[in-house]
Amino acid sequence: MFQIGRSSETPIDFVVTDTLPGSQRVPGQTQVAQSTISRFSCRICVERSPPYTARIYAAGFDQHNHIFLGEKASKWYNQRDEIDGLTTNGVLLTHPRGQFAGKDCRPGKWREVSVRGGIYSLRETRSVPSKSQKVDSESNILMDGTLIDLCGATLIWRSQKGLEQAPQIHQLEEYIEQINAARPQCPVGLTTLMLPKRSDKIDKSRQPYVYLACGHVHGSHSWKGDQNSTTRTCPMCLKEGPFVQVQVGRETSIYTDTHPLTHIFTPCAHLTSEKTARYWSSVVIPYGCQGFRAMCPYCATYLSPMDSATKANGYIKLIFQDNTEF
Is the separation of the CB atoms in 17 and 30 below 8 Å? Predict the structure, then answer.
């Protein structure tokens, strides 16, 4: 059994803190003023024999081996006269529809799990002190790609088999080398652009930047506008929009395939594969009391709304110069 929560006490195996969206982070700030994550959020029990089935349960055991629930948490007796309950702000989960690394994977519906592992539809708001309708057709068994939301941090469960199908660090480095080997150029400064590998330090003038309105890649330049302006005009197509430095998404467990890096999330410009971008832009993550929004899985920045021209929601394909199509 593995316990997860905000508390740093001995019974907790994995301490989690609130995730701030990338656009809201302040340098030097590591924690929010008041956390919404439960001290004893949940526990995961894994069978010792193959196929090592893992199940998730709300709440956790404290140092006295008692299930810890807040005073305002919802509690009730089930049909077997056993006490059950929900944490104050809830432990939500969603299973992917289909294989996470498969062709037709789609995000599932968010549900709430109880202390005894029952699955329930979402409450009207997260802190309402009453349970919703029980969903008997779904279970608390974790699948490859299951998302677990603790009201302040969202975790992803990956199986060993699933991670074996995910790209390895050396594969990402090879894709970066392929892009660099094509020697993409900035059409304005005529400098050769380079994506940095993990240990590289690239001069700012050679780092790729992208116009989020169109996907054209340039180097850092001041053509037709102030470099400090939030809106810039693309020299290639004259579309106006943000001009952002491209960053490589290096967390391999996020990827849904092993295809080349061709797309970025917007507005953060994290580089990833097309299938990964398409999947995560369709996943809505809980935030606040009852809100849901798509986020970049690398930095938790809220993704841009759907573009009427490209029909893409939160991602766009990069367009390099000098025949660097992948």
Answer: yes
- Among 144, 260, 118, residue whose Cα is nearest residue 195: 260
Contact assessment for residue 13 and residue 3, using Cβ atoms and an 8 Å cutoff: yes
Per residue in 47-86, pLDDT tens?
999 999 999 999 999 999 999 998 889 999 988 899 999 9
Q: What is the pTM of this model?
A: 0.90
Beta-carbon neighbour count of residue 235 at 10 Å?
15
Token pair listed for 5 = 């929560």
d(CA 230, CA 244): 9
| Token pair listed for 194 | 């380079």
